Amino acid sequence: DPVTIPVANAVPAIFTTNGSGKGPGAILNEDLSANDKANAAARGTAIVIYATGAGALPGAVDGRLTQPPFQPLTPLPTVRIGGVSAQVVYAGAAPGLIAGVLQINAIVPAEVPTGSAIPIDFSVGDIVSPAGVTVAIR
Fold first, then answer.
1. I want to staple 91 with a disulfide (CB 3.0 to 4.6 A). Which of 17, 62, 104, 110 is the partner?
2. In b/e form, how buried is each residue of 65-77, taking b as 16+ CB within 10 angstroms?
3. 93-107 per-position pLDDT tens digit
């Protein structure tokens, strides 16, 4: 029997360290160390966010490792940390990972609150990733 399956251009989500979609995000600090409450990112530094669901990535072939050149998404997604917009400096294929994994490099704004569980999300167009993902900021 025919089945109707809804399809969307994007369904953004940030990977989490526990795999539940909630809690600490799969995020690296500027020195590429894992972000967590004992190793928080400083304001003004870059973080690397691993995500999915931004739509088709340029040159992506699902199930294979990404290959250069790594073309950025256009337009870039928007990132909010603690409700404050962050500057996105790269968003596209994650080098060395399976095609379809999105890497977003963003600068932590100076006005972001500090703490071990600051909310973080990203948007593709008007579609926002699910709430409940956090990042540690010092």
1. 104
2. ebeeeeebbeebb
3. 888 888 788 999 999
